[in-house]
Write a structure and sequence with these properties.
The complex is a heterodimer of chains A (439) and B (240). Chain A folds into two domains: 195 residues, no CATH class; 213 residues, no CATH class. Helices cover 53% and strands 19% of the residues of chain A. Chain A contains 15 helices and ten strands. Chain A has a six-stranded mixed β-barrel. In chain A, strand 2 and strand 3 form a beta hairpin. Chain A is elongated and about 110 Å long. Chain B is of the alpha/beta class. Chain B has a single domain, classed as P-loop containing nucleotide triphosphate hydrolases (Rossmann fold). Helix content of chain B is 35%, strand content 25%. Chain B has a six-stranded mixed beta sheet with strand order 6-7-8-3-9-10, sandwiched between helices. A four-stranded antiparallel beta sheet of chain B has the order 2-1-4-5, covered by helices on one side. In chain B, helix 4 crosses helix 5. Classes of the chains: A alpha+beta (439), B alpha/beta (240). Chains A and B meet through helix 1, helix 12, helix 13 and helix 15 of A and helix 2 and helix 3 of B.
Chain lengths: 439, 240
């Protein structure tokens, strides 16, 4: 039989009991729709996590710190070798840049407790100090939503996180540009060896740009500020760590950078470069391991949700077995007629398998429709809730790539045909004489 | 059983379409055996109209099933167009039915979800005839049984006589050499039965089809048949 004729015959078969076939296909649709949506949820969730990291190229980033005898947040202190820990200075930056795959190495500073104010409005903010030369990097430009990056030597500049625009009652991101704000900082500043003094300093800074962290990073970093590295060095408290080490350990060595960022061309080069930097005697920290662990969890989540969906689909497959067995029973006489007309057992088997497959196709396509509409509604709800919670970004909760759509339909067809095997072989075994006996 | 027929003696000049030797079919019903057909020797010439008569349970239908390749003999052999049916696999018997046999049943056995044309086309589909050719031949076959105005009706919308005429069109549309009819008028009133019977006689004659008609209506048998085979308890009585 030609394929099209087979489909035509199968169609005429399933059209005979539209309600029953429809309900069976609905079962398949719900199962395959749930399966696709659950996997799409896992994929969308993962994308929500990873897209911002990719956009800011955070996976290409290695944080480097000098080792210290003092315990830190990252771990316990270490005993230095006889010649002392290697310094994190400009010479070290040169050595890092020389490692193959490294695209940039630059110092970075962080401060936790600055106060920024505009008239009566003021906020406590965290700040990152970066060299003005970073403006050439694409991901920095991706980050900026208004204005420009720092201009070297152009006085006291600041780039605000977009959340602060609202917090400081600025009319808009564009209106904020050029605004003069007060920046106040208190803390210890190291003086001559083994001495330091407390300072309280206030200076005027000009807003030159606004940055907007993508995705979930918005909530983590939307209220931070960026400062030029040189400006930050002048703030009291910025060299706190160095001051503490001097005080506690009486160290007299030259002051290196608190932290250096090394960037590589692609994330896959991170482990190799990180290893090379470690071998030079530094502490490193990357998102790479965290992300690998996260991906393993997402994979597990996907497998789990797929398994749940598969169970649902198999249960729906039982529905197909039931429907097809009833069809075989009801159409026993017709099967007998077909056999009398010369249909082989194989013809009958293939016909019933095709009918089962058709129900699967119907259910699979219905599942796509169902899954996509339900997840569309869910996404709408989630985003409405997120807006009420003050999350500005649109959250794409579900991610339906083409392979998932095609895979879900294909899977539904395979399960349906699998469920059709037993009823089809029952149909093929129908004895025409018994089937055609007149009552 | 087979020894009853002596070769050479009474040999027909043209090769017969059907030749049965000692044809036997035993059914097992629980511990007991039922010999539905018991050593039947039979030859049917091409174009012959053979009527098989007998009371219920005399083995008429069993004989028809064996000739049609729906069933296989317990002993003996049946050869159609030189092919010994007992040696064919189930698949080969299906192909034999497809090419060689047309069936007409007492209760019509049309597919209720298909139109008259659809039922006839089903037979052509199995022959590997599709598209316009199939539609044309189905329409032609229905016209031959006088149903050109009923092609789009479903069996439920047709009278019994019309349904049987559709069944006849379906059985003959691919011009099989052998038409097997099992009580084709058994479910019809006298007048309709006569009309259908006329078609069962005239159409095969036009097409040169050999007919085996099973009936318990002696009158019909005598009126139309070239030959009557009388069965009792699975054995032939004296032929008329």
């Amino acid at each position: 039989m030609r394929a099209w004729e087979l489909v035509r015959l199968a169609l005429s078969g399933v059209r005979r009991t539209p309600l029953r076939v429809g309900l069976t296909a609905l079962g398949i649709a719900i199962a395959s729709g749930a399966l696709a949506s659950m996997v799409a949820f896992a994929l969308g969730f993962q994308e929500q996590m990873e897209a911002p990291l990719r956009k800011l190229e955070l996976l290409n980033r290695i944080q480097v710190k000098a080792k210290t005898r003092l315990p830190t947040r990252e771990g316990p202190g270490e005993q230095p070798p006889p010649e002392g820990f290697p310094a994190l200075d400009d010479a070290a930056l040169k050595r890092f840049t020389a490692i193959p795959g490294v695209t940039a190495a630059f110092p970075e500073m962080r401060m936790a407790n600055l106060e920024i104010s505009r008239g009566p409005e003021n906020r406590r903010v965290r700040a990152i100090g970066v060299p003005p030369e970073l403006g050439g990097f694409g991901y920095i430009q991706n980050l900026l939503s208004a204005g420009r990056f720092f201009t070297p030597g152009a006085g006291h500049q600041v780039i605000l996180g977009s959340k602060l625009v609202r917090d400081l009652k600025l009319a808009s991101q564009e209106a904020a540009l050029g605004e003069k704000l007060k920046l106040r900082s208190q803390g210890l500043t190291p003086g001559q060896p083994a001495s330091f003094r407390f300072e309280d300093k206030e200076l005027e800074v000009t807003v030159v740009g606004i940055f907007e962290p993508p995705g979930f990073l918005f909530n983590m970093a939307g209220d931070m500020i960026l400062l030029p590295l040189d400006l930050m060095r002048e703030l009291p408290g910025s060299r706190f760590q160095f001051a503490i080490e001097r005080l506690k350990e009486g160290e007299t060595g030259a002051e290196g950078y608190e932290q250096v960022v090394v960037r590589v061309a692609t994330p896959s080069e991170v482990p190799r470069v990180e290893k090379a930097i470690k071998e030079m005697g530094y502490r490193t920290n990357t998102l790479w391991d965290d992300v690998q662990e996260m991906r393993a969890w997402f994979l597990l989540l996907r497998v789990l949700l797929t398994a749940v969906g598969t169970v649902a689909l198999v249960v729906a497959g039982l529905g197909i077995i039931n429907t097809m067995l009833m069809a075989v029973l009801e159409r026993t006489r017709e099967i007998g007629v077909m056999k009398a007309l010369g249909a082989t057992d194989g013809d009958v088997r293939v016909l019933f398998l095709a009918e089962a497959g058709l129900v699967g196709l119907l259910g699979g396509l219905g599942g796509l429709l169902l899954g996509r509409s339900v997840s569309w509604v869910l996404e709408l709800g989630v985003n409405r809730y997120a807006r009420e919670m003050g999350i500005g970004q649109h959250l794409a909760v579900f991610d339906f790539p083409g392979w998932l759509l095609a895979g879900a339909v294909l899977f539904a067809i395979v399960v349906a045909i699998g469920s059709g095997v037993y009823p089809a072989s029952r149909a093929a075994r129908v004895d025409p004489i018994r089937a055609l006996r007149s009552e | 059983m087979t020894g009853a027929l002596e070769p050479g003696k009474n040999a027909p000049v043209p090769e017969p379409l059907v030749a049965a030797r000692g044809l036997t079919r035993v059914y097992r019903v629980g511990p007991s055996e039922v010999r539905a057909l018991d050593g039947v020797d039979l030859e049917i010439a091409r174009g012959e109209f053979l009527t098989v008569v007998g009371v219920s349970g005399s083995g008429k239908s069993t004989l028809l099933h064996l000739l049609g390749g729906l069933d296989t003999p317990t002993a003996g052999s049946v050869t159609v167009e030189g092919r010994e049916l007992g040696t064919l696999s189930s698949h080969e018997r299906a192909l034999y039915r497809r090419r060689t046999v047309g069936f007409v049943f007492q209760s019509f056995h049309l597919v209720p979800s298909l139109t008259a044309a659809g039922n006839v086309e089903l037979a052509l589909t199995l022959q590997g005839v599709f598209g316009g050719e199939r539609a044309r031949r189905a329409a032609e076959a229905l016209a031959r049984v006088g149903l050109e105005r009923r092609t789009g009706h479903r069996p439920g919308q047709l009278s019994g006589g019309e349904q049987q005429r559709v069944a006849l069109a379906r059985a003959l549309v691919h011009r099989p050499p052998l038409l097997l009819a099992d009580e084709p008028t058994g479910n019809l009133d006298r007048l309709t039965a006569a009309e259908v019977m006329d078609l069962i006689v005239s159409l095969p004659r036009e097409l040169g089809t050999t007919v085996v008609l099973v009936t318990h209506d002696e009158e019909t048998a005598r009126a139309h048949a070239d030959r009557v085979l009388r069965l009792r308890d699975g054995r032939p009585e004296a032929a008329a």
